[in-house]
Amino acid sequence: MKSIILVRHGKSSWEFDVIDHDRPLKQRGESDSELVAKALKLKDCTPDVWLSSPAKRALSTCEIFEKTLNFTKNQTIVDEELYDFDGESVIRYIKRLSNELNEVMIFGHNHSFTSISNIFGDVLIDNLPTSGLVKINFDIEDWKDLKKGATEFIIIPKDLK
Fold first, then answer.
1. Residue 24: predicted pLDDT
2. Can you state the angle between helices 56-69 and 27-41, rounded to 10 degrees?
3. pTM above 0.85?
């Protein structure tokens, strides 16, 4: 059994004149991410590893989850391949994961995460909102055999307010 938890980065700010990669979170992005992380904490998930896009907004979201869930930062892997907006790079990345890993949490971007959720989950999502999270379970032993799985849960900020 393998599981992925996809976490879309929190709401980012367009206030600063920076490249896309360097856009920070808005205050709402920070508070929504903390809200979702607290809800996830109640689900008692224990990812083997956390993976993040290097984009500032994704890493900041990851750091909020790390703090809220008491996860040690040295277990987080940051990879440029996860800075992906259509999902193809993320899917290739997942299929190359070590089979020693059974549950992984990935912090990244849309439309990639909505697409991956719909390709591999069994619950249709129109749009995974910022700070939104989806957990999908797979009846596989090897990541390279990634196929349709079962959506265990979806957590979105507006449902928690």
1. 86
2. 40
3. yes
